Amino acid sequence: MINDCSVVIPTYFPGKIIEKLFESIPPVKEILVFDNSNDHELEDLIKNKYEHVKYIPTGDIGLGNTFNKALGEIKTNLMFITQPDVIIEKNCIENLILAQKKYIHSALLAPLIFENNQYSKYDHFDLKIDKNKKIKNFKIKNFKSVNPSGDIGVEAINSTSILIDRKKIKQIGGWDNYYYTYLEDVDLCYRVRKNNFEIIKVKNSIVNHTGFQSHKSSKHKEINIKRIFNFSKSSLYFDYKNKSKSFFYLQSFKNFIKIILKLLINLILFNKKKIVINLLKLKAYYYFFFLENFGKRNIQLKQ
């Protein structure tokens, strides 16, 4: 058994796909499912078939809150977070733990991510920081689909699968609870680097990610609405919190005008799908700027 590692899985109506994940997890100290959906089918599955897994219903609190709740719940120093549509390859977690002992300044270590047997273009990101320690640029890394020849230090990663050094992450304040989903991982990476800790991708550690399959097909429409709305709102908050205010106001105004123009065009064309998308983006603007006062009414900004 891996005694100093807990596996944490956030869920929202994952369906049967989570069984493949359960069966790929090696013996660890504990496996905890933090269920944002209060899914009785999932609860019964765990109770009847996976008694070694602990089911924790949280209500629909989002990823930032879920990961912070897990930080306080686990009994180990290392926390491996992953998603329901992931399969963990042999020795993945073991090799991450070995790397954690080698890279003593690391706070986050992650396996290489494969999708459909191809090295994923979402494996890690560019996250440039200026001399004032504000984010200068963030984008998907433009690299060929060839996995690294060795361990690499990277600028930012997503939360598909990460080994967390609990003490270091608690030291920088954990996750920002404002983020329901999207960019909570990049925001964390930014603060990890500002505090002079490292983010390491480990060559001999691999997970396979199905991608956008972490929920039942019957929930696809509901989840898609949540994704569009929350990605838009998270993007506004991320820029407001982490970039220069001049950039934020200029960029958010330009994006707002684009949304309005696209909405008008799609109203003329009577494109129902794109009308809904644009209305959800406008709803995110309304919530962020007016109902939440730049996010301040929801949560105190973490530095």
Structural summary, described in words:
With 303 residues, this protein is of the alpha/beta class. It folds into two domains: 2-209, Spore Coat Polysaccharide Biosynthesis Protein SpsA, Chain A (Alpha-Beta Complex); 217-291. The protein is 41% helix and 24% strand. It contains nine helices and twelve strands. It has helices at 18-24, 40-49, 62-73, 92-102, 166-171, 184-194, 220-242, 245-269, 272-291; strands at 2-11, 28-35, 53-57, 78-82, 86-88, 106-115, 118-119, 125-129, 135-140, 152-153, 161-165, 198-209. The strands form two sheets. Strands 1, 2, 3, 4, 5, 6, 7, 10, 11 and 12 form a ten-stranded mixed sheet that branches. A two-stranded antiparallel ribbon has the order 8-9. Helix 8 runs antiparallel to helix 9. The longest helix is centred in the C-terminal third of the chain and has 25 residues, at 245-269. The protein is globular. The model has no long low-confidence stretch (mean pLDDT 93).
Span between termini: 37 Å
Q: Sketch the topology as an H/E string, one letter per element.
A: EHEHEHEEHEEEEEEHHEHHH
Helix content: 40-55%
Unreliable spans are: none
CATH superfamily of the largest domain: Spore Coat Polysaccharide Biosynthesis Protein SpsA, Chain A
Summarize the structure.
The protein is an alpha/beta fold and 303 residues long.
Provide the fold topology.
Elements: E1 2-11, H1 18-24, E2 28-35, H2 40-49, E3 53-57, H3 62-73, E4 78-82, E5 86-88, H4 92-102, E6 106-115, E7 118-119, E8 125-129, E9 135-140, E10 152-153, E11 161-165, H5 166-171, H6 184-194, E12 198-209, H7 220-242, H8 245-269, H9 272-291
Parallel strand pairs: 1-2, 1-4, 2-3, 6-12
Antiparallel strand pairs: 4-11, 5-12, 6-7, 6-11, 8-9, 10-12
Helix pairs in contact: 7-9, 8-9
